[in-house]
C-alpha cells in the first residue's frame, strides 16, 4: 500500500461540527493528481482509517482538501480529525477514484445530503471549469450549510438548496422527470437519502447505469452468519464467526490481505472467489464482477463454505 | 480474433419482451416480419398506461430523422424498442446512442441479417447490399470490390469494407 506522509496546512471550522482541512507535502511539491469525486483514506490514530472525499481541483494539486463532520457516536476517527491543527503530520493514501463524472454524459444531476456535499463540491467545480452542464440539489440541516456561498456563486440558479424535507421531495421529483436523456445522476449522503433517491429514480424510469452513488456513511452491517473460508492454494479452512469480518479472520489465521478503508469502498481487499456464493455488502464491485470476487472487509458468504483463491 | 471480442452484434432474433421499467416509450419496426412483435409491444405499453410514440414501416430515412428529433427531446425514463432487419436496427440504434441513450434503454429484435451496410474505407461511401460477412460486394461510390470485414461500427452503423485485391496488380500478387 502506498501512503503519503503529509502535513496539515489549513484547519478551520467552516460550519457547526464541520472542519475543513488541507494536507500538503512538506516541500510544497505536487501531489498525485485525481479526477473529481476521488477520495483518500486518512489514518485517524489507533488503527482507525476513514475515507474522505477530496474537494480540491485534481490537476497537479499542491494540497488535498477535505471536510470532516464530527460524529460523536462514531469510533472516534472524526474526533481525531477535528483535533488536527496546522503543522501536524498525517498519513494519507493516494487518491482513489470511484465516483468520477461520466465523460459521455449530456448533463450531470448532483444530489447531496449533509456532509455528502464534499464530492459534489469537487464535481461542481470541475463541471464549471470544463463547461459541463450541471445541476445540484443540496439538502442539509438548518445552520449547517457548508460551502453554500461558494456553490451559489459557482452554480447560480443551477443550485437548489433546501433544509425542508418536503421541498426536497418536490425538487427531486421535478429533477427526476425533467432531465434530457443522456443525463447521469450522482448522489452522496446518509443511507436513507441514498435509498430514497435510488428508489424514486427507478420509479421514474432511470436505469441503474445512469445512477452513481457514494455512501459517505457506511450502512450499519449486521454481524452475519458463520461460514467457512476455504483457501484453495493451501487447502486450509478458516472459520469466520458471526460478527467477525472475513478480512479479520484471515489475518488471525496468518493470511495477510492488503486492505485500506475496511468499509467496502476502496477496492484494496478484493479476493477472487472460486466456489460458493458471496453475500456482497460492498460499494466497490460492479455487477458483472460479483460472481467471481468478494471484498473481504465487509462481505460474507451465502453458502456455508466460500472457496477463495488464496 | 476470438469470437468473444468481435464487434459483430449478436442481438435477439426472438421477442425479448417488453422492458417494463420505462416511463415513456418509442417503438419502431422495419419491414413486415417485425410488425406483429412491435404491435404487441405497443399494446402492452398502452395497457401499462404509459405514453408511446410508434412508427411501423415507412421510409427508413424519414423514420430515422424523426427518431433523432424524438431523442433530442426525450427525458430520462424513455425507452426505445426496435424491431426489424439488422441493418435498420443498427442504424436506428446509432441515432439513439449518438443522442445519449444507453444500451440499457434500448431493446432490440433482429428479424433477419441478410443485408449489410458496408462502409468503404477508401471513398467513405456506405453501400447497402445483400452480402454475408467475409464475402465481397461492390462499392456504390468508387466501384472497388470490398471485402466485408468482421468489424461493425456502432457509431456509423456499418460493417468495415476494404479493397479485396489491394495487394495485386493486374491479377498478380505483389
From TrEMBL, chain A:
Annotated InterPro entries: 2Fe-2S_ferredoxin-like_sf (IPR036010), 2Fe-2S_ferredoxin-type (IPR001041), Beta-grasp_dom_sf (IPR012675), DmmA-like_N (IPR054582), FAD-bd_FR_type (IPR017927), FNR_nucleotide-bd (IPR039261), MRET (IPR050415), Riboflavin_synthase-like_b-brl (IPR017938)
Protein name: Ferredoxin
2Fe-2S ferredoxin-type domain span: 225-310
Any matching Pfam family: Fer2
Domain of life: Bacteria
Cofactor(s) named in the record: FAD
Keywords: 2Fe-2S, Flavoprotein, Iron, Iron-sulfur, Metal-binding, Oxidoreductase
All residue ranges annotated as the FAD-binding FR-type domain in the record: 1-102
Molecular function (Gene Ontology), one example: 2 iron, 2 sulfur cluster binding
From TrEMBL, chain B:
Domain Dimethylamine monooxygenase subunit DmmA-like C-terminal: 117-161
Superkingdom of the source species: Bacteria
Protein name from the UniProt record: Dimethylamine monooxygenase subunit DmmA-like C-terminal domain-containing protein
Upper lineage: Bacteria, Bacillati, Actinomycetota, Actinomycetes, Pseudonocardiales
Amino acid at each position: 500500500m502506498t501512503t503519503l506522509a503529509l502535513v496539515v496546512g489549513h484547519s478551520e471550522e467552516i460550519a457547526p461540527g464541520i472542519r475543513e482541512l488541507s494536507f500538503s507535502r512538506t516541500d510544497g511539491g505536487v501531489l498525485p493528481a485525481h479526477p473529481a469525486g476521488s477520495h483518500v483514506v486518512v489514518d485517524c490514530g489507533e488503527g482507525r482509517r476513514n475515507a474522505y472525499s477530496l474537494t480540491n481541483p485534481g490537476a497537479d494539486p499542491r494540497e488535498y482538501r477535505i471536510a470532516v463532520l464530527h460524529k460523536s457516536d462514531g469510533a472516534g476517527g472524526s474526533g481525531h480529525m477535528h483535533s488536527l491543527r496546522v503543522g501536524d503530520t498525517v498519513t494519507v493514501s493516494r487518491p482513489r477514484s470511484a465516483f468520477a463524472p461520466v465523460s459521455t454524459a449530456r448533463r450531470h444531476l448532483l444530489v447531496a445530503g449533509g456532509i455528502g456535499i464534499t464530492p459534489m463540491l469537487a464535481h461542481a467545480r470541475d463541471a464549471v471549469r470544463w463547461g459541463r452542464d450541471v445541476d445540484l440539489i443540496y439538502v442539509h440541516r438548518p445552520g449547517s450549510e457548508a460551502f453554500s456561498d461558494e456553490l451559489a456563486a459557482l452554480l447560480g440558479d443551477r443550485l437548489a438548496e433546501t433544509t425542508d424535507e418536503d421541498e426536497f421531495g418536490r425538487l427531486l421529483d421535478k429533477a427526476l422527470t425533467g432531465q434530457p436523456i443522456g443525463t447521469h445522476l450522482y448522489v452522496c449522503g446518509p443511507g436513507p437519502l441514498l435509498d430514497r433517491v435510488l428508489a424514486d429514480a427507478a420509479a421514474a424510469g432511470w436505469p441503474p447505469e445512469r445512477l452513481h452513488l457514494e455512501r459517505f456513511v457506511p450502512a450499519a452491517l449486521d454481524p452475519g452468519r458463520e461460514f467457512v473460508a476455504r483457501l484453495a492454494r493451501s487447502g486450509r479452512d478458516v472459520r469466520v464467526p458471526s460478527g467477525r469480518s472475513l478480512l479479520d479472520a484471515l489475518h488471525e489465521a496468518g493470511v495477510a490481505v492488503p486492505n485500506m478503508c475496511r468499509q467496502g469502498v476502496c477496492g484494496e481487499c478484493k479476493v477472487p472467489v472460486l466456489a460458493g456464493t458471496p453475500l456482497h455488502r460492498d460499494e466497490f464491485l460492479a455487477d458483472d464482477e460479483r460472481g467471481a470476487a468478494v471484498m473481504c472487509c465487509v462481505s460474507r458468504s451465502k453458502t456455508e463454505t466460500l472457496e477463495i483463491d488464496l | 480474433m476470438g469470437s468473444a471480442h468481435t464487434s459483430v452484434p449478436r442481438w435477439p432474433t426472438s421477442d425479448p419482451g417488453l422492458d417494463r421499467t420505462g416511463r415513456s416509450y418509442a417503438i419502431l419496426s422495419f419491414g413486415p416480419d417485425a410488425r406483429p412483435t412491435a404491435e404487441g409491444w405497443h399494446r402492452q405499453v398502452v395497457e401499462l398506461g404509459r405514453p408511446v410514440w410508434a412508427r411501423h414501416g415507412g421510409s427508413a430515412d424519414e423514420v430515422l430523422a424523426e427518431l433523432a428529433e424524438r431523442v433530442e427531446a426525450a427525458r430520462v425514463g424513455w425507452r426505445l424498442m426496435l424491431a426489424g432487419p439488422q441493418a435498420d436496427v443498427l442504424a436506428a440504434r446509432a441515432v439513439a446512442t449518438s443522442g445519449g441513450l444507453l444500451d440499457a434503454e434500448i431493446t432490440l429484435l433482429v428479424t433477419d441479417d441478410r443485408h449489410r451496410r458496408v462502409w468503404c474505407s477508401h471513398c467513405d461511401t456506405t453501400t447497402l447490399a445483400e452480402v454475408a460477412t467475409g464475402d465481397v460486394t461492390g462499392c456504390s461510390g468508387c466501384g472497388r470490390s470490398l471485402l466485408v470485414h468482421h468489424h461493425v461500427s456502432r457509431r456509423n452503423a456499418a460493417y468495415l469494407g476494404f479493397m479485396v485485391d489491394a495487394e495485386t496488380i493486374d491479377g498478380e500478387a505483389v
